[in-house]
Amino acid sequence: MHDNDRFLELAQAPDARLDDLLALARTRYDVSFDTAHLGGLDVELLQIADLNAHIDTLMERAAATRQKLTLPFWAKLWPSSLPLAMLALRLKPAPGDSFLETGAGLGLCGLAAAIRGFETVITDIEPEALLFIRASILKNGLEGKARAARLDIAGGSLGRRFTVIAASEALYIPELHAPLITLFQEHLEDAPGAQIVLSCDRCREAMPFFAKAQQDYRIQRTETTCRTDAGESQTCVLYRMLRRTDA
């Protein structure tokens, strides 16, 4: 079995144990749980222990072998994911409300939604990301409230709809804008209050995406401040999208 297949299989196995997930993760990475502080709530996230050092190693290896360098963007806790997770905590789910995080990376927003009371599916295309997400689900005692699932923004489907769909830093690849809108159309419930919430650094707003999306959605934009890994302030943008009733 290919290594990525092992990661995917264990990430989605109903009886997976945290120790088994960590053991598999450590065959490829030095990992540890770090705490994300969301106001008065702490969320434990499995992360690569020293991501910068890991990236340096990847760069050296690629240079030595002249192979293409693939960076693990999924493994970084992007600053804009923090205000999106805080937004998820402010939502008030009714019984049966569901939450989808797509392109989740480490899955912070989906974990926050599960803590808030949503029935949550946290998705990414990378098997490694899903393994890390599943480990965080177990670490935070959210088994039964959240699950990890593979979803390809470019053309995948879960075959169901959700009350809320969330994504952080999902707009930096222009070729994925149209597929992302299709994903939203196919997965968002057709019900009052169903919404899409997005976040990004202000420098990655991707205005052509929102110009297209506004044909079918009413869009609210809010700026907020978030902190980089170095503790510096930067401006992040939150978007809330609701279906147009006149579309």
Describe this protein's structure:
With 247 residues, this protein is α/β, with parallel strands linked by helices. It has a single domain (3-243), classed as Rossmann fold, CATH 3.40.50.150. It is 34% helix and 26% strand. It contains 8 helices and 9 strands. The strands form 2 sheets. The chain has a 7-stranded mixed beta sheet with strand order 5-4-3-6-7-9-8. A two-stranded antiparallel sheet has the order 1-2. A hairpin with a 2-residue loop joins β1 and β2 (41-48). α1 runs parallel beside α6, α2 packs antiparallel against α6 and α4 packs parallel to α5 (108-116). The N and C termini lie far apart (47 Å). 36% of the residues are buried. The mean pLDDT is 92.
Uncertain regions spanning at least 5 consecutive residues:
none
The CATH level-2 architecture is identified as 3-Layer(aba) Sandwich
Under CATH, the homologous superfamily reads Vaccinia Virus protein VP39
User: How many domains make up the 3D coordinates?
Assistant: 1
Terminal-residue CA separation: 47 Å
Helical amount among residues, as a percent range? 25-40%
GO molecular function, one term: methyltransferase activity
Keywords: Methyltransferase, Transferase
Organism: Fundidesulfovibrio putealis
Pfam family, one: Methyltransf_16
